[in-house]
């Protein structure tokens, strides 16, 4: 590879790696701006800032969607709403480190679900990697001594399962196949925000968006803008840009470092102290998910950042590109968690 080619590759890889970093920080950001009473309000505000940009940027292709594509994307948006709710409530009730690592189990759950649907077996190496990851989760959640997992840990586990459902649904719904990624993402997020807005109107579900916004301090607004601008918009557009300049597998590899950054941010900035058992669990989770991604490479082509993975705290899942790029939840082909080009959807 020539020096010029190497430099071009590095210039393409760097923005994608930055997406993984901001997604890793999204769990801390969500904890910084959200309380148990403001989850719905924060979700409405976060995506209310994002949707106008997506609508304006993709208006022409958005208008070209068929009725079937809109309905399909709307249904996917309901699943996406569930992912964001589980992730955000989960982050409130657990540590940023635990949230970022537990959600990475999507990379294990998706190939397993794919194999069950296709009636095919998984490589022994993948089964071993999955076992390693599960053991790591057990140790991580018991870092301070063997006790019951927290409510937040269980909610994040549910979010990982919901992400898997979203990935599989996106890859199988004929109505959304071949749809423009930005348009599909916009419809999904619109559907999700509608769910959040309706739930906000239910008595006892927490503060209304405008009431929560009125109580925000400068720090709260900075965290919210970080989630909206960097973890969602920046992540989405970088995925769209990078998948056209490099391979989906390379994008997937870089985005797959998100759990590493979640652990780094949680321990260094949030002050999480997982204990020696928890640290061992972190190592096992990272090793298991990395090994599992390699062992289940053929299956990974079905899944894609972010939702939601992304779709985690980051951004909304992205719709798959014609060649199978990640989806609004995360690129479906980008990584086992982002089919194609899943929208950046992090907690």
TrEMBL record:
**Localization terms from the record:** Cell membrane
Pfam families reported in the protein's UniProt record: EamA (PF00892)
For this UniProt record, give its keywords in alphabetical order, as a comma-separated list: Cell membrane, Membrane, Transmembrane, Transmembrane helix
Stretches for region Disordered? 304-347
Which residue ranges traverse the bilayer?
A: 12-30, 36-58, 70-89, 95-113, 125-145, 151-169, 189-211, 223-243, 250-269, 275-292
Q: Where is the composition biased (Low complexity)?
A: 304-326
Q: Which InterPro entries match?
A: Diverse_Substrate_Transporter (IPR051258), EamA_dom (IPR000620), EmrE-like (IPR037185)
SUPFAM superfamilies of this UniProt entry?
A: Multidrug resistance efflux transporter EmrE
What sequence ranges are listed for the domain EamA? Answer: 14-141, 151-290
Its membrane topology is listed as: Multi-pass membrane protein
Q: Which residues form a coiled coil?
A: none
Question: What family does the Swiss-Prot or TrEMBL record give for this protein?
Answer: Belongs to the EamA transporter family.
Q: What is this protein called?
A: DMT family transporter
């Amino acid at each position: 590879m020539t020096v010029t080619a190497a430099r071009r590759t590095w210039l393409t890889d760097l923005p994608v790696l930055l997406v993984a970093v901001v997604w890793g920080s999204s769990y801390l950001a969500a904890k910084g701006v959200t309380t148990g009473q403001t989850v719905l309000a924060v979700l409405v505000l976060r995506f209310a800032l994002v949707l106008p940009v997506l609508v304006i940027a993709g208006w022409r292709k958005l208008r070209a969607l068929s009725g079937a594509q809109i309905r399909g994307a709307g249904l996917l948006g309901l699943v996406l709403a569930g992912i964001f709710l589980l992730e955000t409530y989960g982050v409130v009730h657990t540590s940023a480190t635990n949230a970022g690592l537990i959600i990475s189990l999507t990379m294990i759950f998706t190939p397993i679900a794919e194999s069950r649907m296709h009636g095919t077996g998984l490589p022994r190496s993948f089964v071993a990697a999955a076992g390693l990851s599960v053991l790591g989760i057990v140790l991580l959640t018991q870092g301070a001594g063997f006790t019951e997992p927290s409510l937040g840990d269980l909610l994040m586990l549910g979010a990982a399962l919901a992400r898997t459902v979203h990935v599989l649904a996106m890859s199988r719904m004929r109505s959304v196949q071949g749809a423009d990624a930005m348009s599909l993402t916009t419809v999904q997020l619109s559907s999700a925000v509608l769910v959040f807005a309706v739930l906000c109107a239910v008595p006892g579900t927490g503060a209304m968006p405008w009431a929560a916004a009125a109580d925000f301090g400068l720090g709260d607004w900075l965290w919210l803008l970080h989630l909206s601008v960097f973890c969602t918009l920046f992540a989405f557009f970088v995925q769209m840009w990078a998948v056209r300049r490099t391979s989906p597998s390379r994008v997937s590899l870089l985005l797959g470092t998100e759990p590493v950054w979640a652990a780094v941010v949680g321990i260094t900035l949030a002050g999480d102290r997982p204990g020696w058992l928890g640290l061992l669990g972190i190592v096992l989770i990272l090793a298991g998910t990395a090994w599992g991604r390699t062992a289940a490479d053929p299956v990974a082509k079905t899944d894609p950042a972010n939702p939601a993975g992304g779709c985690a705290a980051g951004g909304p899942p992205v719709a798959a590109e014609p060649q199978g790029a990640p989806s609004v939840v995360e690129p479906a082909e980008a990584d086992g968690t982002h089919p194609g080009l899943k929208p950046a959807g992090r907690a």
